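I'd like us to work through together how a protein chain folds, taking it slowly. To get us started, please write out a protein record for me. Label the sequence line and the structure token line clearly, so we can match residues to local backbone shapes. Once you have written the record down, we can walk along the chain together.
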Amino acid sequence: MELAEASTLRGVKVMVIDDSNTIRRSAEIFLVQAGCQVVLAEDGFDALAKIADHQPEVIFCDIMMPRLDGYQTCALIKKNPRFRATPVIMLSSKDGLFDRARGRMVGSDQYLTKPFAKDSLLQCVSEFAPKPA
């Protein structure tokens, strides 16, 4: 990763919503190394409870989760006027066209296949993070 790219991610608030502790932890490690502030949530309800307090600038959301799946979570985030503009990147172990299309329908901005590489994760953040003025 380029040094310039690392500094552009410093301080960016990223939320990672995934029911897998392994995925949450690895995403957290990659993001923290890049200088991001990270908020973790283990499912949609957990995320919705934390989102107003933390106001993340980029959200990664797993699709397959108990209780409230990623599509429902994304739709609820996008229905809220305060968070409508917040980029939501869907995470899935399936790389299907159907999943991508369904993600777009609920308002997701991007789609990342698991397991993701550090570079692709950080690339997504730098693509969607608000640019410093």
Remarks:
- The radius of gyration is 13 Å.
- The mean pLDDT is 92.
